[in-house]
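TICKET: design request
STATUS: open
ATTACHED STRUCTURE:
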């Protein structure tokens, strides 16, 4: 469901097991442009402390899950929810700081 007057990165809200979850559009948040025509979004549910609002990230695709050490990431000098990146041979992974997301949403 679309929310008028919400921050631009909030795509809307959706029910999940009797609870309303805010949907964060990662492309908008990271200023990545629009998804390919006909693509179907996927969602990653962020389950933080009970005192925090629950969020779901709308992403283009989920290819796999992986573990990476803190030392594998390169810190970014920019201010925003993505605080570091991991460059792979054919891809770039943005590490997103959940606390920065909560702060940016007011």
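STATUS: resolved
RESOLUTION: sequence designed for all positions
ATTACHED SEQUENCE:
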């Amino acid at each position: 469901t679309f929310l008028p007057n919400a921050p631009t990165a909030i795509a809307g809200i959706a029910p999940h097991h009797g609870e309303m979850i805010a949907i964060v559009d990662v492309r908008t948040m990271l200023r990545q442009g629009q998804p390919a025509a006909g693509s179907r979004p996927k969602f990653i549910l962020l389950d933080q402390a009970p005192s925090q609002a629950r969020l779901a990230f709308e992403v283009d695709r989920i290819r796999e899950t992986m573990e990476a050490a803190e030392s594998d990431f390169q810190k970014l000098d920019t201010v925003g929810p993505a605080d570091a990146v991991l460059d792979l041979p054919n891809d770039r992974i943005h590490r997103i700081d959940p606390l920065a997301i909560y702060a940016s949403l007011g």
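CLOSING REMARK: The radius of gyration is 14 Å. The helical segments are 26-29, 98-104.
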